[in-house]
Amino acid sequence: MVSRLKRRQRGDVHQRSPVHRRGHPMQVRAAIYARVSTSDQSPQMQLEALREYAERRGFAVVSEFVDHGVSGTKTSRPQLDRLMDAARKRAVDVVCVFRFDRMARSCVHLLRVLEEFNALGVEFVSYSENLDTSTPMGQAMFTIMGALAQLERDVLVERSVEGQRRARARGKHVGRPRLEINPDRVTALRDQGKSQREIAAALGVSRKVVRRVLREAA
Fold first, then answer.
1. Residue 113 belongs to a domain
2. Tens place of pLDDT for every residue, the chain, 218 residues?
3. Domain holding 26: CATH number?
4. Can you tell me the distance from the alpha carbon of 98 to that of 27, in angstroms, rounded to the nearest whole number?
5. Which of 118, 126, 141, 203 is least surrounded by Cβ atoms within 10 Å, i.e. has the fewest?
6. How far, CA to CA in Å, does 98 sit from each of 20, 50, 146, 182?
7. H or E element, residue 30
8. In 3D, which of 149, 92, 66, 74 has the Cα closest to residue 115?
9. Quick check: is 172 in a domain?
10. How many structural domains comprise the chain?
11. Contact status, residue 36 vs residue 43, Cβ threshold 8 Å
12. What is this structure's pTM?
């Protein structure tokens, strides 16, 4: 089965803003993304491998985006944001990374990025994992990753619920810190004939807090 990128190179796939001249074969526009976690690391190995890969595939590297000293756990990074903007503007046809974790540490984040690429018609290649979403195998991996991302979300929710249950069992308050105010001030204002709305405004709290304090003081 012929991949979408190969069909695009032959001109069988409609593409906005093509980089070829009329009558010439379409060349796939590639963007390279690299990331290093610390400022003293070099992305050169990633870049060289991806440039060679793009040359072998006949891609035209139109942009390189490199984040220096940025954690992969951050979903917003200066160069990643620029890459996503280029994809949304249909300025690239394929995004190449050296390894999955250069793009995202979380399966959920990676899937979110790939889903957006898929909606934009932008393919994704991970060099080390040999993943190309323009191929049937790549599409199958995309589906598997979706299931893994959902599992990751479910596990996080389950852990959060279990943590809250255990905290409550130990008598620990769960949620936002409880706002404490002086109940004597609340009752004094009430005795002055102030409404709950006026008391809340005077003390800078919500009426719900005022009602709670008055109920506990009753």
1. yes
2. 445 555 555 444 333 333 333 444 578 999 999 999 988 899 999 999 999 999 999 999 999 999 999 988 888 999 999 999 999 999 999 999 999 889 888 777 888 898 899 999 999 999 988 889 888 887 777 777 667 667 666 777 787 777 777 777 777 755 655 566 788 888 888 888 888 888 888 888 888 888 888 888 77
3. 3.40.50.1390
4. 21
5. 118
6. 27, 7, 21, 59
7. strand 29-36
8. 149
9. no
10. 2
11. yes
12. 0.59
Tokens of 176: 């936002």
Q: Answer yes or no: do 197 and 121 share one domain.
A: no
Q: Give residue 188's domain range.
A: 183-217
SS3 66: strand
Look up residue 140 and give its two tokens.
């199958």
Q: Which residue has the tokens 């995004």?
A: 95
**Which tokens is 105 given?**
């540490």
Which positions are annotated as active-site residues? 37
Q: Which CA distances in Å does 36 have to 41, 46, 81, 133, 168?
A: 6, 9, 16, 24, 41
